[in-house]
Design goal:
Distance between the termini: 54 Å
CATH architecture of the largest domain: 3-Layer(aba) Sandwich
Radius of gyration: 25 Å
CATH superfamily of the largest domain: DNA integrity scanning protein, DisA, N-terminal domain
CATH class of the largest domain: Alpha Beta
Strand content: 5-15%
Largest sheet: 7 strands, mixed
Amino acid sequence: MSWLDQVKDSIENISKYGTIMDFGDVLEIVLIAVLIYYILLWMKNTRAWALLRGIIVIGIFLLIADILEMNTILWIAQNALGFVVTALIVVMQPELRRALEELGKRSIVASIIPFDNGRIAGENITSDTIDEIVTASVEMGRARTGALIVIEKSETLRQYEQTGIDVDAKLTSQLLINIFEHNTPLHDGAVIVRGNRVVSATCYLPLSDNLGISKELGTRHRAGLGVSEATDSVTVIVSEETGKITVAYEGELNRNLNAEKLRECLVGLLIGSTDAEKGSSRIKWKGRNRS
């Protein structure tokens, strides 16, 4: 019996028992609908979207084969199904991992299951450190010196920190400028900031595979966007070609920032409303990834 015949039999069995539904059935339908909606929404921004279209084409082909009773093709499809599922899991491993990480970041999950994220308590960045980052970024922008500064928030960046060279020094604008100066040993890669200290330099970051990124942006911006997709970190990017300053956060880019806008953005994302800044509203993040 083909799968199409099984579907027909299932429909006939349902019709025998009537269409009476209780609250559990309605809730189940709603949950499945919401689950499918969010899966499709997630897939739309990944390589899985093109893969889904390919699966739909194959499904239509198999449906036609079933209607025309092409038994050999159906036999091959049924026996290859197990291998296909395994292959899809292997191919989609990066996207599946990112989806599970995103699920773990949701506040509703964190409130129910308070996982330890590995962040050391008491390591909060101060307004003075933000001023040092702004000063260094503006100076490097004027000199057309490329820079990639990743600032840790609640999620640990130790996996990326381990790819670089330990620095563990108090963050100052002079230190950042010296690190990213051309032809210096530490200028290639990213700097990771935890609290008020530079903990590591020359770190490697994951590149974003977002197809919506502007073609004028290079590897430095893709790396900053990639780490913002994988963690809740805030990344300051200084373009070596144009000297323009960009902030990456939650998979979005806020571009072409001057000193004032950069400071407002960093304060809003890293500190928020403080007693020292009462009277001014909290800065809201407005990423512009597509511009």
